[in-house]
Specification:
This protein is α+β, with helices and mostly antiparallel strands. The chain has helices at residues 13-27, 57-71, and strands at 4-10, 34-44, 47-56, 75-76, 79-80. The radius of gyration is 20 Å and the shape is elongated.
Length: 82
């Protein structure tokens, strides 16, 4: 699974909201479904920063399939490993 990151910085909440909404409406849809992993916000005298960590849902599904394939390999010569 490949984590992706998008950082938003703005002087005020209105600018920040516009940037995040544009990202959600225009940049994400072409990528397909995503899974948000973590969203953080910090404030400083210079403005507000929001960091969004996400992964593509297709990559998450692939990772889960690989894990299930691995779980199925807990036998050796027909005997279950401890």
């Amino acid at each position: 699974m490949e984590l992706r990151c998008k950082v938003f910085r703005a002087d005020d909440a209105g600018e920040l909201e516009e940037a995040i909404n544009r990202f959600l409406a225009e940049e994400l849809p072409p990528l397909g479904p995503v899974q948000f992993e973590e969203i953080t916000q910090s404030e400083s005298p210079n403005g507000v920063t929001v960091v969004v960590w996400y992964s593509l849902a297709s990559e998450v599904a692939d990772s889960l399939e690989e894990a299930q394939d691995y779980e199925g390999s807990d036998e050796l010569d027909g005997k279950e490993l401890a």
